Amino acid sequence: MPITPRIPRPWVDRQATARTLMETELEKLPADEREIVERFIRRKHIARNVLKEFDQSMSFGERLSDRIAEIGGSWTFILLFLFFLAAWMVFNSFVLHKQAFDPYPYILLNLALSCLAALQAPVIMMSQNRQADADRAQAKNDYEVNVRAELEILQVHEKINATRETELTELLEIARRQEEMIGALQQRLAASSS
Predict the structure, then answer these.
(1) Model-level pTM?
(2) Residue 26: which residues within 8 A CB-CB, separation 6 or more?
(3) Over 60: is that where the pLDDT of 6 sits?
(4) Are residues 36 and 144 in contact, defined by beta-carbon separation less than 8 angstroms?
(5) Quick one: pLDDT at residue 181?
(6) Nearest to 37 by CA among 163, 143, 186, 175
(7) For 90-136, how does the pLDDT look when each residue is reduced to its tens digit (9 = 90+)?
(8) DSSP assignment, residue 93?
(9) 47, 147 in Cβ contact below 8 A?
């Protein structure tokens, strides 16, 4: 039984086509997305600890404002401050009744509270702005990782499709050979029966 050589089929080079399409599409992408795709092509890592990088870049003032916002926004601060206010009022109203340094309308206490609020509000806002910046950086990193994962998944799909096409071609070739073998056996049977 003669084995016929494989007949080359006119296949389109999918990798070359994909590369050509990718290059034309790559030029249309925004700069940040183009950087993601180029990192994927160069097989460089995209995922990183953005919050750690962000924390390392903070100045002393930024760290201080974060710490003040953390303390100022806690139940411990609220309860301690309520205790301080109650102690101030009791001390000035009952203990130092006649010689109180801040008698009943508590004007000095009002001034202190106003100053505290005037200073605490911008510090908390600075901390919130920095947290929003950190969240944006984290979201950008998450997006980059998701794009990379999508590209990896597309690459795996391409590999699976290429493998499936190769196997299908091999199966068709085997089926063709089997048909030839069946034809040859039928001819032998016909020749031996006559």
Answers:
(1) 0.58
(2) 34, 37, 38
(3) no
(4) yes
(5) 95
(6) 143
(7) 888 888 878 888 888 899 999 999 999 999 899 999 999 999 999 99
(8) I
(9) no
Please state, as a whole number, how many other Cβ atoms lie within 10 Å of the Cβ of residue 135.
Answer: 13
Tally: H helices and E strands in the chain: 6, 0
Dihedral (C-alpha) 173, 179, 181, 183: value to the nearest 10 degrees? -150
**116 vs 16: which has the higher pLDDT:** 116
Q: Is 145 exposed, middle or buried (0-12, 13-18, 19+ CB in 10 A)?
A: middle
pLDDT at position 1 over 50: no
Which own/partner pairs from 176-183 qualify as long-range (CB within 8 Å, at least 24 positions apart)?
A: 177/3, 177/4, 180/1, 180/4, 181/1
* 38 CB-near residues (< 8 Å, 6+ apart): 26
Question: Could you tell me if 109 and 41 are in contact, meaning their C-beta atoms sit under 8 angstroms apart?
Answer: no
- Buried b or exposed e, range 146-183, using 16+ CB within 10 angstroms: ebbeebeeeeeeeeeeeeeeeeeeeeeeeeeeeeeeee
The rounded distance, in Å, linking the Cα atoms of 177 and 3 is 8
What's the CA gap between 190 and 83, in Å, rounded?
111
Going by the DSSP 8-state scheme, the letter that residue 9 receives in this structure is P
Under DSSP, the state recorded for 94 is: I
**Helix (H) / strand (E) containing 146:** helix 107-193
Beta-carbon contacts of 127 under 8 Å, excluding residues fewer than 6 positions away, are 65, 66, 68, 69, 70
